[in-house]
User: Fold this.
Amino acid sequence: MKENTNIENDTELFAERLTLAAGRIRELSLDGEQSDLPVVYRDYFRKEALFLAEMLDTADWVSGRAVPAISEELFAEASFETLQAHNRHMYEEILPENYAKCYGRPAYAVQSFGTEMGQLLSALYAELRGMIPYAFEQRTWDMLVLLELFLEVRGLFVGDGEPSMREVRETLYWYLFDYTDQMMEDRTRELVDPSLGFMRNIILGEDLSDLRFLFRYGEYVTDNEKKTAAFLNTLSEEEIEDMARTWSEGYRIGFIVTGKDLSKKKTVDIRYRLGFERMVKAAIAKFEQMGLKSVIYRSAGHLVNRRQHIRSGCYGAVPNAQFEYDHRNDAAICLNEQYVTRKLQALQGAFERYKEEAAGHAGPAVMEVFGETPFEPQADPSAFRLTEAQQKLQVHYQNEAGQITNRYIIGSERSFTIIAYPVPEIGSRYEEIFRETVRINTLDYRKYQRIQQHLIDALDQGDRVRVTGMRGNCTDITVKLHPLADPEKETNFENCVADVNIPVGEVFTSPVLSGTDGLLHVSQVYLEDFGYRDLKIRVKDGMITEYSCANFADEEQNRRYVEENILFHHPTLPIGEFAIGTNTTAYRMAKTFSIADKLPILIAEKMGPHFAFGDTCYSWEEDTASFNPDGKRIIAKENECSALRKTAPDKAYFGCHTDITIPYEELGSVRVIRPDGTEIPLILEGRFVLPGCEELNGPLEGLL
Assistant:
């Protein structure tokens, strides 16, 4: 990582600052009394000084120095047990069993220091956790600014009294504001520059049969990561190659079917969870054969670069999802017009600096995992909340940032692919589920292509589709379709087989908003790591008008939960996609192993009709022609919102796309309605009834 523009690359000054800051931290870590501070704050600053000193020791240990305070063994030679104990120790304070009395928990910090001071010091605690990955990557600039931030805040408390909340807030604000340029430049470079190879070097350079490699990242490691890596080591080279080929070929085919030139690209962004290194290593080689170097980066550390609680990139286990959820709105400290303007200018400047690398970036190849216990967060009223004005600023930033990114990593020239595999937490039948997932990921796309064409031929006869629920599901929604000027050459629905979205199994469209009305209801769904119970979303003319769920006793908390995690603070969102999932084999797997509540949306969306709220599937590439295998051009690539992209781009895109599926067991009917009012039933009581689709009912036998 490039060392620090902020001190003008003056290495002598930088070394002096780092030496002074590290020395002072070590002194404070040995001071158990902290007697120069007001009594109430002594424990907080003592613990944080101790943590920072331990991270300095860790950085020394990782770099090859002997650090008796950690271990008599050098890091490179340490036993699995030593590395595992150290890994747990780094994250111990925020683990669920210790979280009740952790200063990283806003409620505990507020109880200890009062509302605003507690929120600020808890946010500082969360920011300082970034020292862990920086110590492992030897990112000394990032470490220095965190050390200096801690010392500056602590200095405010030295003396007889205590500082005002304003002084503490301003110190945190100016830290974020002043270092925005460097932090965003570093993050942008991580996305597009393959020369930054910390994680890739672990994958390619370590002995993956020796599970000690998992501790080289600095990420939290649990049984999921250890057992996944161990299980992959039992697979043959042929099996690993087949899995990597499915993933990489999906990526390549995605370029072919959308008519994009992969030969112009130089890099691929690989995102995965720890434990799958053996497969990722094989995929890196296959991408190299396509002319693509792999970019692999860690999920963001600094608050400047974090997007609430959402992780993107490569990462290990989440030590405590509640901790990350509690700090999702810490940007409330700094979110004003000046800060947003600075971030956007910094992003523009970073992309301009790395515009050649950005132009060669082909897009992400994502590997998701499933099987972890769905997370249902607890509302903490002590945590920071964004004001209404800040919510609007955040939406504005996401819209503008998306447009800047699209100008440098051009949307019409990039693609992606996503695949998913289970982790051992899914249960005792993990290996069976894993092998069944591999089978689902490699189903015969030609069969599905043929069956799905029957669905599309029927759908293209209608001007709308009506979807209803059953067995307590209250869904009743009508989707308006685009008119076809030439049905012999045009279609509304994409025949989606196993390319970018693995596994196979859906047909989808971007509906007309005007005339798309009704209620979407699911009894239980798992979206982006969060569980929802009794989720209801009502739309009028394709836009959300009402929403609720039953996660909390308080209705306002339920609304806020949906607003933050599905609407992402937008006052409303359009339906960007309507699709019909056809992968009944995946549905049978879910029922056979009782894992329906643990499947990712990538698989769940193939198990019934689904609706996506936010942008369409064709955002930023509406004007790029797309064709189905039968040669028909897909004309439904935009709606009334995305059509504003040329005149009011800030109103065209929303920076989100959340799929919500009605499972077959709750699906009453899907009917195509022709302009004359006659109907074509596609699905009745969870069964496909359209001629040519009967084969899809085989896996459903005995389940519905």
